[in-house]
Amino acid sequence: MNKFVLIVILTSNLIFAQLDVIQRFPLQDSTKTVNRSLILNAKNGNLLYFFIEHDSIFYSRSYDKGSSWNDKIFFAKTKKYWNEMSGIVAQSGRIILSYFSSDDFTKLSYSDDNGLSWSESNQFSTNIFRLPSLSQLNDTTFWNLFTDNGDLSYIESTNSGKTWGAKKLLLKNVTNASLVSLNDSVKIIVSYSGNLVKNTSYDGGKTWSDSISIIALPNYGFYTFYGNSLNLVKQNDSTLVLTFHREYEDDGILRSDILFSKSLDKGETWSEPKELNRYIGLNLNPQITLVDNDIYFTFTSDRYERTQVWYGIVGKSLDANSPPNIYNISTDPKIPLAGNDVTIKSKVIDNKLVAQVKLYYQIDDEELQTIEMFDDGIHNDDKANDYIFANTIPKTIKDKIIFFITAIDTNKLFVQSQLDTIKNNLFDIYVF
Fold it and tell me: Taking Cα atoms as reference points, which of 418, 411, 419, 417 lies closest to residue 278?
């Protein structure tokens, strides 16, 4: 019996200057889902990269501003499907991290030696469930904002994060917030309330203005926000940088893009949002931090099959690792009989031109074969140039077909479709 060999084609690594290109974080397990990440800038100039891999939080350290990373260190267990975290580096240098633990409580740990050692994890007096966002209001006062049944609440620490008070309601009908201090008195919160809105405090956070819309979100799809994905940072020249993500359905595929906007006048006006990513697919959960006046960002993406985390610098890192996206794989007929022709279709999209799509298949125990798939309207692929590629395997017989699809674009970025299985008593189709 001939053995089926799964073909994997690896793209060559291109060498770029430091973070000229958005990069995949190198220490994550390529076989596991990684769906949250956070970069913190320690006082000694080191960067700490926190990421949630499956159900565990790990972190790593960089001594060269993200060009390379040392060791993967276990931090804590978290929930597999509810794994949110937020972090901050205080003016004193204390690093604080809050996260949702495996025992269903939001906990906090801090480090006073740049992440070399950590305090014992303490449970908050309030069990925070959604979208935590740590902020520093003055030398010793910290807030942890969170979404609470459609409103914005917070808890406060007045001793640099050692202990925390009871939950307090902050703003009604706003969610997913980020706070920045312009000075000791003036604070700004940006949050989501249909559009992106701003609230301002002129007395150190004691009272707040009414919500003012700052960025309208067009209704060409639907918008939602996962994780603590709305982030606000103040640069050294007082420029405010805001990142957020939009999610919408586009011709049958769920897409999400990460956008950023800037304000040069303390939040009064904002630039037109621009996309940070080029990949047509899922780009989620952005987090940003200030590093020597550069805005570092990290995010989740399903490019190259598995959901993993990527990072770069706003305005400097090009999204050159943006491969094609293969989805909506189908067979016609859906349940073929022995001896039928079988047409295999898939939609393939890319921010560049798709150069070639191939179908690799094995009928019963025969040798692996390859045919090209086309989007020309004459290979059972519906219409020409509609991004649906197809071709037909003639007169398949007996038990099964094993197949997978590959695509490469004009930048020579390659992707291979994921494993799926469709079974029938008369005919099995294995989709790779």
Answer: 411
Q: Per this entry, what is the length of the chain?
A: 432
Query: CA distances (Å), 67 to each of 18, 75, 231, 267, 285, in order?
Result: 6, 22, 23, 32, 22
Tokens 């040392």 belong to 70
DSSP 3-state helix, strand, coil percentages of the chain (rounded to 5)?
0, 50, 50
Structure tokens at 215: 């960025």
Q: What is the pLDDT of residues 300-327, one digit of tens each?
A: 999 887 899 999 999 899 998 899 999 8
- Give me the numbers of helices (H) and strands (E) for the chain, helices first please: 0, 33
Q: Give the rounded distance of the alpha carbon of 418 from its chain centre.
A: 19
As a whole number of angstroms, the distance between CA 265 and CA 163 comes to 35
Q: Give pLDDT tens digits for 138-172.
A: 989 999 998 888 899 999 999 999 888 888 999 99
Q: Which long-range contacts (CB under 8 A, 24 or more apart) does 272-277 make?
A: 273/215, 273/244, 276/22, 276/243, 276/312, 276/314, 276/319, 277/22, 277/301, 277/319, 277/322
286: nearest Cα among 294, 296, 278, 271: 296
The predicted-structure confidence for 166-176, as pLDDT tens digits, reads as follows 889 999 988 88
Instruction: Please identify, in words, the CATH class of the domain defined by 23-313.
Output: mainly beta
Pairwise CA distance, residues 390 & 76, whole Å: 46
Q: Which fold has domain 325-431?
A: Immunoglobulin-like (2.60.40)
Judge whether 296 and 311 are in contact, CB under 8 Å.
yes
- Tokens describing residue 418: 């994921």
8 Å CB contact between 432 and 417: yes
Contact by Cβ (8 Å): 321, 25: no
Q: Are 174 and 191 in contact (CB under 8 A)?
A: yes
Residue span(s) of the chain under CATH 2.120.10.10 come to: 23-313
Alpha-carbon gap, residue 113 to 49, rounded angstroms: 16
Tokens of 70: 């040392």
User: Which whole-number Å values give the CA distances from 19 to 22, 67, 166, 405, in the listed order?
Assistant: 6, 7, 42, 31
Tell me if 143 sits within 8 A of 135, measured CB to CB: yes
Residues linked to residue 259 through DSSP beta bridges, in sequence order: 244, 275
Q: Which of 396, 384, 386 is nearest to 359 (CA)?
A: 396
Torsion sign, CA atoms 238, 92, 37, 319:
positive
Contact yes or no for 360/369 (Cβ under 8 A): yes
Cα angle for residues 28, 39, 48 (degrees, 5° grid): 75
